[in-house]
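Exercise 7.
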Amino acid sequence: MRTQLESSVDSLGIHESVDDVFPPGELATSLADLPIEVEVIDDDGIAACDAAVTLEYREAFLDLEWVHSIQAGVDRFPFDDLTERGVVLTNSTGIHDRTVGETVAGYLLMFARRLHDHVANQQERRWNRPEWDEAFTLPGSTACVVGTGTLGRGVAETLGALGVRVTGVRRSGDPVPGFDEIYATERLLEGISSAEFVIVTVPLTDETHHLFDAESFEAMRDDAYFVNVARGPVVDEPALIDALEADSLAGAALDVFEEEPLPESSPLWGMDEVIISPHCAAYTRDYFRDVGDIVRENVHRIEDGEALHNQVV
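Solution. The predicted structure, written as tokens, is:
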């Protein structure tokens, strides 16, 4: 991996694909004071740039000096090809901790306070109160966060403030600030077996693909809720559906899926104890500003001949 760019960057394109998250023009305007040309580009405009900020991958990026992903996850980018062509890839790790943490807290509060039931009842004009033993409060419950990187730590910080005991699963099993207990990855089933909430925040890699399968769901408590704000393929979706249909889990909150958008035929849509959001756990009106801070810093680092922040390859 190169530690710095070998040539200067004179033009930066904001690829139109970021429009799925924020208007590309907002980011371009916020970076207008940089000492380089910044403009919104489509696929045809890639060739005119030295660098690009993007959500999606395009093969034409292999001719650039630097590509920045607005997401933390970079599983859609071909590392080997980028390395072979000498393209530096950076990502947006570090900006999603609070936003994802608050989204996860929202899921847990919806389940605990039965808010999703109230929303559903409102659509049907039903005046239905929860059963006397359905609603509960979060203090005293345990959440096992699988993945203790930026996202996992943001979840732990937010849930800890709500009185939740937070455990974590990571490769080494070494302690992590904000977590009451850490399990090494080989103890995953033990770690998730006693938690009321199991929350997935790991990146998608060969090792984490279908990390959660039938065995994992069988190990969880039958009154536990499963939350995925990582990547869809981290979960064997048919196995999750089987567990939910068999009442082996209390419910699930899912922001990501193996196929996106989630097909209309998926049985997940019709499950009362499943909350579905369209891969937007990190969304905030300040998203473009947060991405812009990283891009701005790296433009200055390039000028100074320094290694780039959040460099992946």
